[in-house]
Amino acid sequence: MQIGIVGLPLCGKSTLFQTITKTHLDAATLSKSESHQAVIKVPDERLNQLAEMFNPPKIVYAAIEFVDVVGLQKGDSGSTQFTSNFLSKVKTNDALIQVVRAFNSAAIPHPDGSVDVLRDINSFETEFILSDLAIVEKRLDNVKKQILKTQDDHLKRELPVLEKCNDLLQNETPLREHRFAKEELQILKTYQFLSLKPMLIAVNLSEDQAAEKEKYLSMIEPKLKQNTMGITFFGQIEMEMSELGEEDTDVFMKEYGITESALDNIIKQAYHLLGLQSFFTVGEDECRAWTIRKGMTAQEASGEIHTDFYNKFIRAEVVQYTDYISAGSFAKAKEQGVWRLEGKDYIVKDGDIISVRHG
């Protein structure tokens, strides 16, 4: 899973990237035109507990790749230019975090002359909609011409989906706000539409705005519709905390009323936005967390472990994490009736511990 961090210049997106990935980049590196990438382990206390019970030599956490997307430029008029290079970099991500600046600073002036949270959110929304609309209009024209020539069934299925997208975009509605059917999303997948990507709006506050978190969440609430969520964070404080030990970090968090780190909060929101969950495989050799989409069957989940497991799937041995911890062993779980065999159509639950039987 890849999450892109975007934002206007001087909003704090690179600060957020460095904080959650614990990578500290110098000014020379940050000024380069290449996007910065880092893979982080997804913290999971359940996996830690299982590892303590099995004591394997190898523990594998689920992982998320974060990308600090660069490429926005200042135009001749002084306003920010959304270049095709920047938009193409955004397209490759599964979800986006838009960092929006709420802090004032005379030393770091806002590139558009003033701080305006809603204006900055709308600037991205508008550019993404226009980019998608240009693609849809061109594709619609081609599809209609091809249908007249070939009567292709796939194109006939694609046409009404594109027409629906065109109507939404013409009405300035991001595609993520519409509930597309599974079959429709499969058609749209190849286009990598920007306004279809799940969005987490992260409002960057200064330390003297600690009492204003709810104010800014209320301000952006009208934007938080289908597949869009919002959080606040203290960029500079979080950056400083990322360089401290655990004890000093706890002191900082209590002082500013921070109940969880930016990383933990963002991962939680990202999993929710993308409809993700985790299951586990355990043993004396390895304990591992696997990330899958909610609604996946046991056979589909087994394919995440190995392609052969999907193709030769027979049964899945399943026990819920909480039941296993309560029982203390597989033998006890069987005695208590919480360990069971499931077929290929079983819908995997978050926290399931699974062992796949295959041919």
Task: Give a short overview.
By secondary structure, the protein is an alpha/beta fold.
Structural write-up:
The protein has helices at residues 13-21, 27-30, 45-54, 84-91, 117-150, 153-170, 182-188, 213-220, 235-241, 246-255, 262-274, 298-305, 307-311, 321-327, 330-336, and strands spanning 2-6, 36-41, 58-60, 63-68, 73-74, 80-81, 95-101, 199-205, 228-234, 276-281, 286-293, 313-320, 340-342, 352-358. The protein has 359 residues and is α/β, with parallel strands linked by helices. The chain has 3 domains: 2-43 and 59-112 and 196-274, 3-Layer(aba) Sandwich (Rossmann fold); 127-195, Orthogonal Bundle (DNA polymerase, domain 1), CATH 1.10.150; 295-358, Ubiquitin-like (UB roll) (Roll). The strands form 4 sheets. A 6-stranded mixed beta sheet has the order 2-4-1-7-8-9, with helices on both faces. A 3-stranded mixed beta sheet has the order 3-11-10, with helices on both faces. A 3-stranded antiparallel beta sheet has the order 13-12-14. It is flat, with a radius of gyration of 23 Å.
